[in-house]
Amino acid sequence: MKFGIACASLVLGAWFGGHLVAAGDGADQAPAPTYTKDVAPILFKNCTGCHRPGEIGPMSLLTYDDVRRYAESIRDEVRAGHMPPWHAEAPAGTFLNDRRLSDADKQTLFRWVEAAAPRGDAGDMPAPPAYAEGWMIGQPDVVVPLPRPFDVPATGTVEYQYFEVPTGFTEDKWIQAVEVRADARAVVHHVLVYAREPEGGPARPRVLVPRREDVAPATQPRPRPAPAGGARQPERRLGSLVATMAPGWSAMVFPADTAMQIRAGAVLTFQMHYTTNGTTVQDRSSVGFIFAKEPPTREMRAGSFINSQFRIPPGTADHRVDAEVGFAADTLVWGLFPHTHLRGIRWHYELIHPDGRRETILDVPQYDFHWQTYYLFAKPLVVPRGARIVSSAWYDNSAKNPHNPDAGAEVRWGDQTWEEMQYTGIAYTVEAPPPGGEGRQGP
Predict the structure, then answer these.
(1) Where do the DSSP E strands lie in 311-366?
(2) What is the pLDDT of residues 215-269, one digit of tens each?
(3) Does the pTM of the predicted model rise above 0.70?
(4) Where are the domains of the chain?
(5) Does domain 142-221+235-430 have CATH number 2.60.120.230?
């Protein structure tokens, strides 16, 4: 099984300097592309994972009639760089889930639209892709829903909700793929799923090392300030992070010979972030797991590192916040997931080797809160013991930011979208345990 994703990211490629082929430079000598022979294979490979009934794409692109209706819009969205929602800069082949179309595929789409979108011969039509209804990863072996439906009100602020669900696993399970499915997608902003294991089990060595107390792997939410006349919200034991859903991302398929372990008797905790939209909605989201057929060579882990102690002054257009994490063992990093809210505009990551050498490993110059991506390396990043990863996020808290909820506010860390975060998810495997390392890795 290839390392990849099955999520709301299989969409049209971005426009990177491509142009329509003009008359006189060879276009008039080649036959026009047809849907059945040339366009359908591109769409089936890159688009229909999202653009099909029940998925995040706003329209289906499974049939000629579907595609023909939106042909000009497809051309315009690709040309403008809105589709696919891909925001990192790197040479082709750097990321396994790079959504950009090749130049040849873009030219095929443009020429097809300019030729009035011919259908072509039915005999050239490829078989449509097979999808498991309701799931990107395929039909899960186990589906764990919220223990009960949750009523999301029509208006107001909904604090994070936490739901605990026993897995019922009587033996350790190796997870090859995982996906979070939002039931009421219009009001589910994000979901984090954690697995808390029974007390007394063997501890995993701690690998991620925070720079200081306020820049740390987030094993659990920090206590929120006590409301006037009220008690402080207690901390929660969440355990290890096993699944993430955010706008544009919902699932992970792990590479061959790697899998994530959920131990027997584990309890899942769903952290649910709901946003009201003017209508009362009931939600019962779920997480699905596909089990590995055999134990892996490497155990995949998911964690995070954050900076929760920043302040963004009102009106500032380019405010930088850094976070840092060190490594107590030789590690392979398989992916990074940058996350800010509505003021976040770009990200940059550097690997600092033990000898001080610095290396850019991820550059996201056009971060988009509305379409977030777990950037998966085609070749895992080798991080030696003693190295560090430094993340830098920039924020636009000025009135020129059309998404800014309040340019006059000083912004700090907070759960709601009008507040901010400096959070990075990280997927990694440990190549050698740290000497004498003990304790739980989190999250």
Answers:
(1) 319-327, 331-339, 344-352, 358-364
(2) 433 334 444 444 434 344 456 788 999 999 988 888 899 999 999 999 999 999 9
(3) yes
(4) 27-124, 142-221+235-430
(5) yes
